[in-house]
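Because discrete structure vocabularies remain unfamiliar, we reproduce here a specimen of the format, pairing a chain with its fold in token form:
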Amino acid sequence: MTVPSLTRRQLLSLSALGAVGLLGGCGDGQAPQLLSSRGQFPAAWLKRLPSPWQSRRLESAAAVLQAAQQPRSALVQLGDGWAQTLGPAALQAFEPGAALEGLLPQSEAVSRLFRDGSRVALPWAFGTWLLLLRSRPDLAAQPARGWGLLLDPSLKQKLVLPSSPRLVIELALRQLGSSSADPAALADPRLPAQLARLRCQALAFDERDGLNLLLSGRAQAAVLPSQVVLPLLRRDLRLSALLPSSGSPLWWNLLLVPAGEHPAPALDWLRECRSRPMLDRLLSGGWVPPLRRERLGASLALWPKEQALLLYPEPAVLERCNSLPPLNGSERQRYQRLWDQAAA
């Protein structure tokens, strides 16, 4: 068989490709990795990750936790709930520390994972839980009812609630004018009955697939993280969303450094999400850096006012929102008893 000859240009191209392959192969085995779970880190920002860092996307937060102690895992992305499952010995102080400057006061406790000691996490995005409605302008026109809208008779078995019992209990507390930020709130004698009424409304407890139930028409309302909701509002005119004036629990997305010897991520890259044009792209995906409102003003101005207030609540509402610190053993049992009592 005759082998076709190559032109000089083809030979040069092949030589260049071979050199790139050799160079890439030399460092790949030792390059530090940023681990994230699918859909939980903005692709635009990830693409800007500087060399020699590599991105590794896993299917779930559980998979990120499992891989976090591998030698090349130098930076991990987790939600605040998942991050709290890591013990102090599994993490080290976040560096560069300058990346933690300028954040909202609410992020201080989160950066320490609600523990004493070093700031081990960089909160890079935060938000609220919203009530998302499908083709229900009648309910959307009644924001004064707040979280009480979840008990509207027309939503019985048409409502998707979060899978976390703690979040559902938080919603029931807010229907009573309280929240878990008040240490005495769980002792409210009205709470078991209120929680039972709320549970009876639910078609499902599943924020992961709850959106599909809503978009398919099987559900008419769902309580979902703001990051999921805001991009949808721009694409689907059937949808509307509310953040009651009583506020909601906050969710946080974090970057953490596992224990061990790892290079620090570049400060310029960490800060890129706080300025335009990257900031505009993050907000378009529902990701809001926890900075003071004036720092985000120009980017928030690209959104309709009603939606901008869902992305970043007005100060009075934000003050009524609270983070959810980890529970100790007795607290977990108390929540579980309350949940079981409401199901009886």
About this structure: The beta strands are 33-37, 54-58, 73-79, 121-134, 159-161, 202-205, 221-225, 239-242, 250-256.
